[in-house]
Amino acid sequence: MPNVSRAWPTLFVSVLCLLAGGAAACDPSGGRDARPSASGAAPASGRVDLLAGDWRHLPGGTVGSGGVRIHGLGRQIVLQDGTGGQPHPPVNLRGPRLEVRGDFQVSATLRRPAGQTASLYLYGEVPIVYDEWRQNRRGLRVAVSERELSLTVWDGRSAAPVADRTASVTSPATVSVTFERHGGDLVLSAGDTRVSVPDPGVFDAGSVTFGVDAVPGAPDWTLAALEATARDGGGVAVRDTRMAGQPTQPSDSLRGLAEATGRRLPIGAAMAAEPLVSDDGYRTLATTQFSMLTTENALKPQFVHPGPDTYDFAEGDLLVDFAAANRMTVHGHTLIFGEANPRWMQQVALADRERVMTGHVRTVVGHYRGRVAEWDVVNEPLSPDDDGPDGRPGLREHLWQEAMGESYIDKAFTAARAVDSEAKLYLNEFGAEADGPRWDALYALVVRLKGRGVPIDGVGFQSHIHEAGDHIDPAVLRSHIAALAELGLSARISEIDVYGESPRVQATQFAGVLGACLSEPTCTSFSTWGITDRYGSTAEHDSYPLEPGDELPWDQRLRPKPAVAALRDTLRAARR
Ligand code: XIL
């Protein structure tokens, strides 16, 4: 009998190497110090070279011969009004993920110029990112500054760290640090200095995703080496990010059934980069069920344009490349919006706002020209207050409207069209599915835009149903889609999610709205705002762990609710 426990590290590495295919090639000949090979693969057995993976998509990172240079971006997530500010350090979402079992060790060599603090994050769970907050789950930070070595640990039960240990050191310019999970402790050492905390189970999910940070304005630091080694019967292996899902979809998936309708209607969902790379079940639902991807938060101004002269396309590119790898059309959300704007943008002087707005539109649309098929150019132009001066909502008051009045809408569409003449340009709004002042105001607005020759192609009906008793009447929605068609405009269902107290009522609502879209030839797509309650936008984010909402078709355990069957039935009924 082979000694199973002794054979385990090699077995674990080999099996994972096989699973990962060519992506993380492993050398069965064993144990030597692995360096990146020309192909970027990491030959290893029991020891893996993590820098051999993909670090090209790390925000603020630059890959060079000496390692990965880290530039401090100072990323923060602010509240809608620009106040607050939660640190949002970059995660190497597209980079190597370390699979771990039992005890292991990660060693890093950091080249740190004076005045800089080098931070390396090891995430046991990838953070969940929304546009007003980021929920850090289990993970830890290793930080090295001039005089201090520190280990900060989060256990996923609260926003605050569960432990924060520091030790005084005199760091040389190049410092090697070793982090270990060993015998129930998390231990960090550099030379003779050592700090340790009991492990609250940071890596119990079996993987480590890496992130970094640097002080903005201080000179860049360099991650010169990063390796992992199995210890005492544990195992390590590298798994690279999977961008492609299954090449074919089950014929009874939403996208499969939709492709069989006379309309071949795109079926979409708002998606986020973090769960796509870290949650296999989420990724599988994304690729099997949906043929369209809406960028949930990644292309909102706060994320994509963090500084006046800084654009950060890493997460947006991940989504767009993911969509391409899985034959999905991309709907870009959103160029201009009164929310989710970075603080600097909210502070731009009135006289400069038009220049900043059109520059933003041109740069983002230009970056994705040919890859993003359609855009929400302007999101939620109407005031949330329905009782404006003439009994209807007026324009929503925000930084762009304040500077340019209604003409900000014209200017945003004109700028987008000038850069990409092929992309379909949408105006997106909530609460216009029913008759009443919101619909009247929206209709009047698009009549004015058309009258002024604004290059608008269509209107998105968000279709959020967030209150018990609230509902969308499919016949009324159809009449609105038809009224827009009379003006030469398309429509789409852009963000549906439905209050889920009664799964039956929820199912009827999803299906009714899909039926309305299928019945109107100018309805170009049907998209939900998210896939599963596990990452739903209505989650109660102040609680740890997250307290999910119940608005989406798949529940938090990724089980389909009756809504999924109802959507399928509606698509089946529309088959050619
Ligand atoms: C939501 C996001 O999904 C959340 O992550 C965020 O915290 C708040 O915004 N209408 C829109 C979307 O157009 O941008 C909103 O997205 C949901 C309502």
Automatic annotation (TrEMBL):
GO terms for molecular function: endo-1,4-beta-xylanase activity. PROSITE patterns: GH10_2, PROKAR_LIPOPROTEIN. It holds the Pfam family Glyco_hydro_10. Its EC number is 3.2.1.8. It catalyses: Endohydrolysis of (1->4)-beta-D-xylosidic linkages in xylans. Residues 1-25 form the signal peptide. Residues 251-570 form the GH10 domain. SUPFAM superfamilies: (Trans)glycosidases (SSF51445). Keywords: Carbohydrate metabolism, Glycosidase, Hydrolase, Polysaccharide degradation, Signal, Xylan degradation. GO terms for biological process: xylan catabolic process. It comes from the Bacteria. Belongs to the glycosyl hydrolase 10 (cellulase F) family. This is Beta-xylanase. It comes from Actinoplanes teichomyceticus.
